[in-house]
Predict the 3D structure of the following.
Amino acid sequence: MITQITGTNIKGLTFAQDIDQLTLFIGPNGAGKSARSQALILALLGYIPGAGKQNAEILDNYGDGKEMSVGVEINGHLFQRKYARSGESVSQAYGVNGKKKTKDQFSQAMFEVGRPVAIDIGAFMDLSDNKKIDAVFDLYPPETDISKLVAEIEETKTKINALNAKARSTEDAAARLTTARAQIEKPVGTLADISAQIAETEKSLAQARQDLKEADEEALRLKTVAEEKEKADKAVKEAEDKAALEARRKFLQEQAEQLKAEDVKKSEPAKDAIINGPIRSIGQGAGPMPGEEIIGVASCAPIQNISKAYGGSENHAAASIQSILDALNGAGCSACAARLVAIRELRKYQRKEAA
Protein backbone atom coordinates (compact mmCIF):
# COMPACT_ATOMS: atom_id res chain seq x y z
CA MET A 1 0.00 0.00 0.00
CA ILE A 2 1.23 3.51 -0.85
CA THR A 3 1.62 5.68 2.25
CA GLN A 4 3.58 8.75 1.05
CA ILE A 5 4.53 10.75 -2.05
CA THR A 6 7.64 12.95 -2.13
CA GLY A 7 8.90 15.52 -4.60
CA THR A 8 11.79 17.96 -4.87
CA ASN A 9 11.80 20.77 -7.47
CA ILE A 10 8.96 19.14 -9.43
CA LYS A 11 6.93 21.85 -11.13
CA GLY A 12 8.54 24.30 -8.72
CA LEU A 13 7.33 22.46 -5.60
CA THR A 14 8.93 20.38 -2.88
CA PHE A 15 6.69 18.22 -0.66
CA ALA A 16 6.24 15.05 1.36
CA GLN A 17 2.55 14.14 1.10
CA ASP A 18 1.11 11.37 3.30
CA ILE A 19 -1.80 9.47 1.74
CA ASP A 20 -4.24 6.85 2.91
CA GLN A 21 -6.10 4.04 1.20
CA LEU A 22 -8.40 6.65 -0.36
CA THR A 23 -7.01 10.15 -0.88
CA LEU A 24 -8.50 13.11 -2.78
CA PHE A 25 -6.47 16.23 -3.66
CA ILE A 26 -8.44 19.48 -3.82
CA GLY A 27 -7.31 23.09 -4.00
CA PRO A 28 -6.86 26.10 -6.29
CA ASN A 29 -4.70 26.18 -9.33
CA GLY A 30 -1.01 25.99 -8.47
CA ALA A 31 -1.69 24.29 -5.14
CA GLY A 32 0.18 21.15 -6.31
CA LYS A 33 -2.59 18.68 -7.13
CA SER A 34 -1.12 17.70 -10.53
CA ALA A 35 2.45 17.88 -9.16
CA ARG A 36 1.64 15.23 -6.52
CA SER A 37 -0.19 12.99 -9.00
CA GLN A 38 2.62 13.27 -11.57
CA ALA A 39 5.28 12.70 -8.89
CA LEU A 40 3.49 9.47 -7.93
CA ILE A 41 3.23 8.28 -11.55
CA LEU A 42 6.85 9.21 -12.32
CA ALA A 43 8.14 7.46 -9.17
CA LEU A 44 6.25 4.28 -10.07
CA LEU A 45 6.65 4.13 -13.89
CA GLY A 46 9.78 6.21 -14.58
CA TYR A 47 7.85 8.33 -17.09
CA ILE A 48 4.51 10.08 -17.43
CA PRO A 49 2.16 8.73 -20.14
CA GLY A 50 1.68 11.20 -22.97
CA ALA A 51 4.97 12.99 -22.26
CA GLY A 52 8.54 12.25 -23.22
CA LYS A 53 10.37 9.26 -21.75
CA GLN A 54 13.93 10.56 -22.07
CA ASN A 55 15.63 11.82 -18.88
CA ALA A 56 16.32 15.26 -20.41
CA GLU A 57 12.68 15.64 -21.53
CA ILE A 58 11.40 14.66 -18.07
CA LEU A 59 13.73 17.09 -16.28
CA ASP A 60 12.95 19.96 -18.69
CA ASN A 61 9.16 19.39 -18.62
CA TYR A 62 8.65 18.80 -14.86
CA GLY A 63 11.81 20.04 -13.08
CA ASP A 64 13.81 23.21 -12.99
CA GLY A 65 16.14 21.98 -15.71
CA LYS A 66 18.98 21.20 -13.29
CA GLU A 67 17.89 18.74 -10.62
CA MET A 68 14.68 17.00 -9.52
CA SER A 69 13.63 13.99 -7.47
CA VAL A 70 10.38 12.08 -6.85
CA GLY A 71 9.61 9.27 -4.41
CA VAL A 72 6.91 6.91 -3.20
CA GLU A 73 6.69 4.96 0.05
CA ILE A 74 5.24 1.46 -0.34
CA ASN A 75 4.64 -0.70 2.72
CA GLY A 76 7.32 1.18 4.65
CA HIS A 77 9.94 1.19 1.83
CA LEU A 78 10.87 4.50 0.17
CA PHE A 79 11.65 4.33 -3.57
CA GLN A 80 13.25 7.45 -5.14
CA ARG A 81 14.25 8.55 -8.63
CA LYS A 82 16.69 11.49 -8.96
CA TYR A 83 17.33 13.39 -12.19
CA ALA A 84 20.45 15.60 -12.56
CA ARG A 85 21.97 17.47 -15.50
CA SER A 86 25.72 17.36 -16.16
CA GLY A 87 26.64 19.39 -19.21
CA GLU A 88 24.44 18.31 -22.12
CA SER A 89 23.35 15.00 -20.58
CA VAL A 90 20.82 14.14 -17.85
CA SER A 91 21.24 11.05 -15.67
CA GLN A 92 18.76 9.17 -13.50
CA ALA A 93 19.76 7.62 -10.15
CA TYR A 94 17.82 5.02 -8.18
CA GLY A 95 17.51 4.65 -4.41
CA VAL A 96 15.68 2.39 -1.96
CA ASN A 97 15.42 3.50 1.68
CA GLY A 98 18.19 6.03 1.09
CA LYS A 99 20.60 3.51 -0.44
CA LYS A 100 21.77 3.76 -4.05
CA LYS A 101 20.60 0.91 -6.30
CA THR A 102 20.89 -0.09 -9.92
CA LYS A 103 17.88 0.07 -12.20
CA ASP A 104 17.39 -3.71 -12.06
CA GLN A 105 17.74 -3.78 -8.26
CA PHE A 106 15.23 -0.89 -7.98
CA SER A 107 12.68 -2.73 -10.18
CA GLN A 108 13.20 -6.01 -8.31
CA ALA A 109 12.74 -4.34 -4.91
CA MET A 110 9.53 -2.61 -6.08
CA PHE A 111 8.25 -5.90 -7.48
CA GLU A 112 8.88 -7.63 -4.16
CA VAL A 113 6.74 -5.10 -2.23
CA GLY A 114 3.79 -5.44 -4.62
CA ARG A 115 4.59 -3.11 -7.55
CA PRO A 116 1.59 -0.74 -7.32
CA VAL A 117 0.36 0.98 -10.47
CA ALA A 118 -0.92 4.53 -11.12
CA ILE A 119 -2.83 6.19 -13.94
CA ASP A 120 -3.78 9.79 -14.76
CA ILE A 121 -7.30 9.54 -16.14
CA GLY A 122 -7.11 12.91 -17.89
CA ALA A 123 -3.78 12.15 -19.49
CA PHE A 124 -4.98 8.65 -20.36
CA MET A 125 -8.03 9.98 -22.21
CA ASP A 126 -5.80 12.28 -24.27
CA LEU A 127 -3.67 9.33 -25.50
CA SER A 128 -4.08 7.77 -28.92
CA ASP A 129 -5.67 4.33 -29.14
CA ASN A 130 -2.33 2.52 -29.53
CA LYS A 131 -0.82 4.41 -26.57
CA LYS A 132 -3.90 3.68 -24.47
CA ILE A 133 -3.32 -0.02 -25.18
CA ASP A 134 0.33 0.31 -24.16
CA ALA A 135 -0.71 2.15 -20.96
CA VAL A 136 -3.23 -0.54 -20.04
CA PHE A 137 -0.64 -3.26 -20.61
CA ASP A 138 1.81 -1.30 -18.45
CA LEU A 139 -0.80 -1.02 -15.67
CA TYR A 140 -2.04 -4.59 -15.96
CA PRO A 141 0.68 -6.63 -17.63
CA PRO A 142 -0.41 -10.14 -18.67
CA GLU A 143 1.13 -13.12 -16.98
CA THR A 144 2.60 -14.36 -20.25
CA ASP A 145 5.12 -12.76 -22.60
CA ILE A 146 3.33 -10.30 -24.91
CA SER A 147 5.65 -10.99 -27.84
CA LYS A 148 5.03 -14.70 -27.45
CA LEU A 149 1.31 -14.08 -27.28
CA VAL A 150 1.42 -11.97 -30.46
CA ALA A 151 3.42 -14.70 -32.22
CA GLU A 152 0.84 -17.30 -31.18
CA ILE A 153 -1.94 -15.05 -32.49
CA GLU A 154 -0.18 -14.70 -35.85
CA GLU A 155 0.42 -18.45 -36.02
CA THR A 156 -3.23 -19.07 -35.26
CA LYS A 157 -4.24 -16.64 -38.01
CA THR A 158 -2.00 -18.49 -40.45
CA LYS A 159 -3.57 -21.82 -39.49
CA ILE A 160 -7.04 -20.35 -39.88
CA ASN A 161 -6.18 -19.05 -43.35
CA ALA A 162 -4.80 -22.47 -44.31
CA LEU A 163 -7.93 -24.19 -43.03
CA ASN A 164 -10.14 -21.74 -44.96
CA ALA A 165 -8.16 -22.41 -48.14
CA LYS A 166 -8.47 -26.16 -47.54
CA ALA A 167 -12.19 -25.82 -46.95
CA ARG A 168 -12.61 -23.90 -50.21
CA SER A 169 -10.56 -26.54 -52.04
CA THR A 170 -12.68 -29.30 -50.52
CA GLU A 171 -15.87 -27.53 -51.53
CA ASP A 172 -14.58 -27.19 -55.10
CA ALA A 173 -13.64 -30.87 -55.19
CA ALA A 174 -17.08 -31.83 -53.86
CA ALA A 175 -18.73 -29.73 -56.54
CA ARG A 176 -16.62 -31.40 -59.26
CA LEU A 177 -17.46 -34.85 -57.90
CA THR A 178 -21.13 -34.01 -57.85
CA THR A 179 -20.99 -32.85 -61.47
CA ALA A 180 -19.00 -35.93 -62.53
CA ARG A 181 -21.40 -38.22 -60.70
CA ALA A 182 -24.33 -36.71 -62.56
CA GLN A 183 -22.54 -37.32 -65.86
CA ILE A 184 -21.77 -41.00 -65.17
CA GLU A 185 -23.73 -43.34 -67.44
CA LYS A 186 -25.58 -45.90 -65.41
CA PRO A 187 -25.11 -49.50 -66.59
CA VAL A 188 -27.94 -51.22 -68.37
CA GLY A 189 -29.79 -53.90 -66.40
CA THR A 190 -30.91 -54.54 -62.91
CA LEU A 191 -28.69 -54.71 -59.86
CA ALA A 192 -28.91 -58.50 -59.94
CA ASP A 193 -27.72 -58.58 -63.56
CA ILE A 194 -24.80 -56.27 -62.80
CA SER A 195 -23.87 -58.38 -59.77
CA ALA A 196 -23.91 -61.51 -61.94
CA GLN A 197 -21.66 -59.82 -64.51
CA ILE A 198 -19.26 -58.78 -61.76
CA ALA A 199 -19.16 -62.33 -60.40
CA GLU A 200 -18.51 -63.76 -63.87
CA THR A 201 -15.75 -61.23 -64.48
CA GLU A 202 -14.11 -62.10 -61.15
CA LYS A 203 -14.33 -65.81 -62.01
CA SER A 204 -12.65 -65.20 -65.39
CA LEU A 205 -10.00 -63.09 -63.70
CA ALA A 206 -9.30 -65.86 -61.16
CA GLN A 207 -8.99 -68.43 -63.99
CA ALA A 208 -6.62 -66.12 -65.90
CA ARG A 209 -4.47 -65.74 -62.80
CA GLN A 210 -4.37 -69.53 -62.38
CA ASP A 211 -3.40 -70.01 -66.04
CA LEU A 212 -0.68 -67.43 -65.69
CA LYS A 213 0.64 -69.15 -62.58
CA GLU A 214 0.73 -72.54 -64.38
CA ALA A 215 2.45 -70.96 -67.39
CA ASP A 216 5.10 -69.47 -65.10
CA GLU A 217 5.65 -72.85 -63.43
CA GLU A 218 5.96 -74.60 -66.83
CA ALA A 219 8.43 -71.98 -68.05
CA LEU A 220 10.48 -72.50 -64.90
CA ARG A 221 10.41 -76.28 -65.39
CA LEU A 222 11.51 -75.98 -69.05
CA LYS A 223 14.30 -73.65 -68.02
CA THR A 224 15.48 -76.19 -65.41
CA VAL A 225 15.35 -79.02 -67.99
CA ALA A 226 17.33 -76.94 -70.48
CA GLU A 227 19.97 -76.17 -67.87
CA GLU A 228 20.25 -79.85 -66.90
CA LYS A 229 20.51 -80.88 -70.58
CA GLU A 230 23.24 -78.29 -71.13
CA LYS A 231 25.16 -79.67 -68.15
CA ALA A 232 24.72 -83.25 -69.45
CA ASP A 233 25.88 -82.30 -72.98
CA LYS A 234 28.90 -80.57 -71.50
CA ALA A 235 29.74 -83.64 -69.41
CA VAL A 236 29.37 -85.96 -72.47
CA LYS A 237 31.61 -83.71 -74.58
CA GLU A 238 34.23 -83.63 -71.84
CA ALA A 239 34.10 -87.46 -71.61
CA GLU A 240 34.39 -87.80 -75.41
CA ASP A 241 37.34 -85.40 -75.50
CA LYS A 242 39.02 -87.32 -72.69
CA ALA A 243 38.45 -90.65 -74.48
CA ALA A 244 39.80 -89.21 -77.75
CA LEU A 245 42.90 -87.91 -75.98
CA GLU A 246 43.44 -91.30 -74.32
CA ALA A 247 43.05 -93.13 -77.64
CA ARG A 248 45.49 -90.72 -79.29
CA ARG A 249 47.99 -91.19 -76.47
CA LYS A 250 47.67 -94.98 -76.73
CA PHE A 251 48.08 -94.88 -80.53
CA LEU A 252 51.21 -92.74 -80.27
CA GLN A 253 52.62 -95.02 -77.58
CA GLU A 254 52.04 -98.08 -79.78
CA GLN A 255 53.69 -96.32 -82.72
CA ALA A 256 56.67 -95.43 -80.57
CA GLU A 257 57.05 -99.01 -79.32
CA GLN A 258 56.76 -100.34 -82.87
CA LEU A 259 59.41 -97.93 -84.14
CA LYS A 260 61.62 -98.83 -81.22
CA ALA A 261 61.28 -102.55 -81.98
CA GLU A 262 62.10 -101.95 -85.64
CA ASP A 263 65.21 -99.97 -84.70
CA VAL A 264 66.36 -102.74 -82.39
CA LYS A 265 65.78 -105.35 -85.07
CA LYS A 266 67.72 -103.36 -87.66
CA SER A 267 70.67 -102.91 -85.31
CA GLU A 268 70.97 -106.64 -84.43
CA PRO A 269 72.99 -107.78 -87.58
CA ALA A 270 75.52 -105.00 -87.22
CA LYS A 271 75.93 -105.79 -83.53
CA ASP A 272 76.48 -109.50 -84.29
CA ALA A 273 79.00 -108.62 -86.96
CA ILE A 274 80.99 -106.48 -84.60
CA ILE A 275 80.78 -108.83 -81.64
CA ASN A 276 81.69 -111.95 -83.69
CA GLY A 277 84.19 -110.29 -86.03
CA PRO A 278 87.93 -111.03 -86.03
CA ILE A 279 89.03 -107.49 -85.13
CA ARG A 280 90.34 -106.82 -81.58
CA SER A 281 91.15 -103.12 -81.70
CA ILE A 282 91.89 -100.20 -83.93
CA GLY A 283 95.11 -98.47 -83.29
CA GLN A 284 98.52 -97.70 -84.69
CA GLY A 285 100.70 -100.80 -85.07
CA ALA A 286 97.89 -103.16 -84.00
CA GLY A 287 96.83 -106.27 -85.92
CA PRO A 288 93.64 -108.33 -85.90
CA MET A 289 93.21 -111.16 -83.41
CA PRO A 290 90.51 -113.66 -84.27
CA GLY A 291 87.99 -114.43 -81.52
CA GLU A 292 88.09 -111.00 -79.83
CA GLU A 293 85.20 -108.47 -79.97
CA ILE A 294 85.37 -104.73 -80.55
CA ILE A 295 83.44 -102.73 -77.92
CA GLY A 296 84.33 -99.29 -79.12
CA VAL A 297 87.11 -96.93 -80.06
CA ALA A 298 89.20 -95.85 -77.05
CA SER A 299 91.56 -93.45 -78.78
CA CYS A 300 91.56 -90.87 -81.53
CA ALA A 301 95.10 -91.76 -82.71
CA PRO A 302 95.77 -92.51 -86.43
CA ILE A 303 94.95 -96.05 -87.58
CA GLN A 304 96.94 -97.71 -90.43
CA ASN A 305 96.29 -101.49 -90.35
CA ILE A 306 92.58 -101.81 -91.30
CA SER A 307 93.26 -102.01 -95.05
CA LYS A 308 95.83 -104.77 -94.58
CA ALA A 309 93.50 -106.80 -92.33
CA TYR A 310 90.61 -106.75 -94.86
CA GLY A 311 92.51 -106.47 -98.13
CA GLY A 312 91.12 -103.04 -99.07
CA SER A 313 92.98 -100.13 -100.66
CA GLU A 314 94.98 -97.69 -98.59
CA ASN A 315 92.99 -94.68 -99.77
CA HIS A 316 89.66 -96.29 -99.00
CA ALA A 317 90.74 -97.26 -95.48
CA ALA A 318 92.04 -93.76 -94.83
CA ALA A 319 88.72 -92.23 -95.89
CA SER A 320 86.77 -94.55 -93.58
CA ILE A 321 89.09 -93.89 -90.69
CA GLN A 322 88.81 -90.15 -91.28
CA SER A 323 85.04 -90.50 -91.02
CA ILE A 324 85.43 -92.21 -87.66
CA LEU A 325 87.84 -89.54 -86.46
CA ASP A 326 85.49 -86.73 -87.56
CA ALA A 327 82.61 -88.35 -85.65
CA LEU A 328 84.76 -88.77 -82.56
CA ASN A 329 85.98 -85.17 -82.68
CA GLY A 330 82.45 -83.81 -83.22
CA ALA A 331 81.02 -85.90 -80.34
CA GLY A 332 83.90 -85.11 -77.94
CA CYS A 333 85.13 -88.73 -78.16
CA SER A 334 81.74 -90.07 -77.04
CA ALA A 335 81.74 -93.85 -77.09
CA CYS A 336 78.17 -94.07 -78.31
CA ALA A 337 78.58 -91.81 -81.37
CA ALA A 338 81.94 -93.31 -82.27
CA ARG A 339 80.54 -96.81 -81.98
CA LEU A 340 77.68 -96.06 -84.44
CA VAL A 341 80.07 -94.68 -87.07
CA ALA A 342 82.49 -97.55 -86.50
CA ILE A 343 79.68 -100.06 -87.07
CA ARG A 344 78.77 -98.37 -90.33
CA GLU A 345 82.39 -98.27 -91.62
CA LEU A 346 83.29 -101.79 -90.53
CA ARG A 347 80.25 -103.18 -92.38
CA LYS A 348 81.90 -101.96 -95.60
CA TYR A 349 85.03 -104.00 -94.91
CA GLN A 350 82.96 -107.05 -93.91
CA ARG A 351 80.93 -106.94 -97.13
CA LYS A 352 84.12 -106.50 -99.16
CA GLU A 353 85.79 -109.44 -97.47
CA ALA A 354 82.73 -111.62 -97.99
CA ALA A 355 82.74 -110.79 -101.69
